[in-house]
Amino acid sequence: MLRALDEVGIVPDLVLGTSIGAFNGSVIADRPGAAGVESLTELWVRIAESDVLQGSRIDRLKNVATLRPALHETSELRAILEGAHTPGRRIEDLTVPFQCVAASIERAAEHWFTSGPLIEALLASSAVPALFPPVEIDGEHFYDGGLVNSVPLARAVELGARDIYVLQVGRIESPLRPPQRLHEAALISFEIARRHTYHAAVASLPEGIGLHLLPSGNPVPFDDARQLKWRDVSSTSGLIDGAYAASIAYLEAER
Questions:
Q1: How far is Cα 20 from Cα 17, in angstroms, rounded to an integer?
Q2: Which candidate among 23, 140, 183, 242 keeps its CA 20 to 30 Å from the CA of 128?
Q3: Which is nearest to 179 in space by CA: 223, 219, 229?
């Protein structure tokens, strides 16, 4: 999606991110344009060629057996983030204004990181419940931002955006169906809540706001069992190419 936007000359002057979108968005906010796209693509290809979540199966089983709140450790996610950003980088030092959101456990509310250590904010925004433990920052604990604001349209408008490009990986454009298996019930339930929030935000957009929902180009249904294979990123290159083809076609049709 980012490659397609760059090729048609669309450069962001504000980047908002949630969860993995915060990670990807922070790289583009730091290095906007073709250089950032290339850097991010190379990073994900390297991740796909390695064990993205390095903890062993034995470690994960130990976490389950000892009733720990997550299968993986924060250090595993931190290693990925530090592969994209220099340790010590701060949000306010990025080239393009950037913010990311996380879910505060104590306040049961969204929290926007607008300044401070970048990697800590990205860790908080990406702390998927059960996969990673909550991230503590200044005495407060945070989970993945997708729990409270998966596609932050209202935040973009609040900050003055008039033309919004949504780069989503949830396949919002694909229809859902009733669940047929146990794992599908959880996936579809979460997706209903996420899509409801998104569609409510779309309905509340002020007049004059341009909204562009880029297609993911991913043919796999959201509720497919492969969604549960969170450690398998072997299809990364194909997903990147599919998203590019779908997005460039969408953007050229809009022109």
A1: 8
A2: 242
A3: 223
**What is the amino acid identity at position 11?**
V
Looking at the chain, the number of H-run helices and the number of E-run strands are 9, 7
What are residue 229's phi and psi, to 5 degrees?
-90, 70
The DSSP symbol for 210 reads: E
Q: Within 10 A of 138 (CB to CB), how many other CB atoms are there?
A: 6
Instruction: Give me the DSSP letters along 147-176.
Output: GT-SS-HHHHHHTT-SEEEEE-SS-TTSPP
Cβ count within 10 A of residue 76: 17
| Contact criterion met (CB below 8 Å) for 111 and 104 | yes
Q: What is the pTM of this model?
A: 0.88
Looking up tokens 């993945």 gives: 144
Q: pLDDT tens, 96-144?
A: 999 999 999 999 999 999 999 999 999 999 999 988 999 999 999 999 9
- Which residues lie below 8 Å from residue 90, measured CB to CB, with a gap of 6+? 115, 116, 117, 118
Q: How far apart, in whole angstroms, are the C-alpha atoms of residue 8 and residue 177?
A: 35
Do the Cβ atoms of 105 and 134 come closer than 8 Å? yes
